[in-house]
Amino acid sequence: MSFIKLFKILSFFIVISLFLNGCNGKIPGADARKFPADPKERVKQNLEQGRGFTLNKAFGNGTRGGTFDFASSNELWRASLDVIDFMPLTSVNYSGGIIITDWYSDGNNSNESIKISIRFLTNEIRSDALDVKIFTKKCLDNFMNCKILQTDKVLINELKKEILKKAAIYAQQKKDENFKPYTNKGLGIE
Question: How many CA atoms lie within 13 A of 48 on its CB side?
Fold first, then answer.
C-alpha cells in the first residue's frame, strides 16, 4: 500500500472520530421525548418553532393556491394598452413590464412613422411609474435612407398624462366595485 493511500485512510478515520467525539455520542435534537409521535403534530410543532415553512403561507396568506396578479387587474397596464390600441404591437411582456409597438404611420405621410416603448417601473399610479420613449423614423424615398430619432418631451408627457388619467379612472372604478360599507356584525359589539 502506498503512502498516499495510507494517509487518506488515516485522515478519514481521524475526521470520523473527531466528529463522533464532538457529538458526545448524541445527535442534536434527536431526543424522542421532545417530539410527538404523530407526524402531523411534529409538523405543527416545527412550524410553531420556526423550523419549517409551508408553501401555502409563502404564496398567499395561508390560502390554498397562490395569488395571481393578471394584467387586467393592473390599471396602468390596461390604461397603456387602451391609449395605444390603434398601434400594432411588437412585444408585450407583462411579467417583464414592457410594451413595444411596431412602427406606425398614419395614411397622410408614408415616409414618417413612430414607435413607442413603455416600461413599467412600478404598479402605483404616479408620474414616475412609466418610462416612455417615442421614436420617429423619417425616410427620404420608399423606406431608404431612413433616420431614427427620439422625440421631444412634449409628446412623451402628453402620452404619460393620458395613460395616468385613464389609469386613475380604472382605479376609481375598481375601488367603487370593491367598496363595502363597514358593519360591526360578528364582532360582538352592538
Answer: 7
